[in-house]
Amino acid sequence: IYINPDDLSIISRVFGKQNVYDFTGENEITENIYNYYETSHYRPHVGKKLMEIIYRSSIRSDG
């Protein structure tokens, strides 16, 4: 499931595009059923992976 493009546009304007991460849709995390307890709650290792991606990106953009 992808985020609604209008919603993504709004939150990008409010928080700044560089501060919004879209992990929806098909990707290495969402395609692996073992990353989830059930359809909407992911396992702790997924949260850790998302934070690593976000903070790695943040460090690069901060210089």
Bin the helical content. Answer: 40-55%
Radius of gyration: 13 Å
Order of helices and strands: HH
Q: State the separation between the terminal residues, measured CA to CA.
A: 33 Å
Tally of helical segments: 2
Task: Quickly give the structural class.
Answer: mainly alpha
What fraction of the residues are assigned to beta strands by DSSP?
under 5%
Average pLDDT rating: 92
Main β-sheet description: none
Provide a compact summary of the structure.
With 63 residues, this protein is mostly helical. The chain has two helices and no strands.
Task: Describe it.
The chain is mainly alpha-helical. The chain has a domain at 21-62. 48% of the residues lie in helices and 0% in strands. The chain contains two helices and no strands. The protein is flat, with a radius of gyration of 13 Å. The mean pLDDT is 92.
Keywords:
single chain; 63 residues; mainly alpha; flat
Question: Mind sketching the topology for me?
Answer:
Layout: H1 5-15, H2 44-62
